[in-house]
Amino acid sequence: MDLFLERGYEATSMSDLVGHLGISRQSLYDTFGDKQAIYIAALKLWRDQQNQSFLQLLGSDEPIRSVVRRVFESVIQQDLDGERSRGCAMVSAIVRPSSSDEPSSSDETIARLVSDNARSLEAAWAKRLREAQDRGEIGAHHDPVALGRFFASALSGLRVTARTTRDRQALEDVMRVALGVLG
Questions:
Q1: How far apart are CA 6 and CA 87, in angstroms?
Q2: DSSP label at 87?
Q3: DSSP letter assigned to residue 102
Q4: 88 or 119: whose pLDDT is higher?
Q5: What is the C-alpha separation between 20 and 23, in angstroms, rounded?
Q6: Confidence of residue 98 (pLDDT cuts 50, 70, 90)
Q7: Dist. CA 168–CA 107, nearest whole Å
Q8: What's 97's DSSP letter?
Q9: Could you tell me the CA-to-CA distances from 144 to 66, 122, 149, 159 in Å, in that order?
Q10: What is the pLDDT of residue 97?
Q11: Whole-prediction pTM value?
């Protein structure tokens, strides 16, 4: 997973994976099949790790503005840690160049995995925002589903921005504007 995040799918060879994991090529093939299958497994692992952390933050009983701030701050910190931002594996997966003009079944599997993940995150946001609305933390005029989509998209955009700039202030500006949406 780390190797794919650092180098990208196309720039990661099977030899790189064998060397990084310290196992034989045959063991890798016996366990996963091919590079694409390893990549899909890495995406699922990344998704599960990220979503667990995200859902924990989102599940807090804190006021919604605090929760939103903590989620955004967590992403900013995570994406600025280390030598360079690795960004979001899901965003990288969907924008990676295809090796051919015709999408393969594995490309469709990746697209479905990314799409399902996005829908799941939007739903988690919407649920939490609906709860905040029921508590009177945000106005009744807000559409929790639309806000959920907005926050999920804003976080994806934040991760893309983190890959192109190491400017913490720019990322915090995005967070500040996102918080302003709540009124």
A1: 9
A2: -
A3: S
A4: 119
A5: 8
A6: low
A7: 33
A8: P
A9: 17, 10, 9, 22
A10: 54
A11: 0.81
Phi then psi for residue 97, to 5 deg, are: -70, 140
- Of 36, 145, 94, give the one whose Cα is nearest residue 28: 36
CB atoms within 10 A of CB 18: 16
* CB under 8 A, 24+ apart: contacts of 4-10: 4/39, 4/42, 4/89, 5/46, 5/86, 5/87, 5/89, 5/92, 6/86, 8/92, 8/96, 9/35, 9/39, 9/92, 9/93, 9/96, 10/96, 10/97, 10/99
User: What does the alpha-carbon distance between residue 39 and residue 53 come to, in Å, rounded to a whole number?
Assistant: 21
Any idea how long the chain is?
183
Handedness of CA 160, 162, 164, 168 (dihedral sign): positive
- With pLDDT > 90 as the criterion, what percentage of the chain qualifies? 44
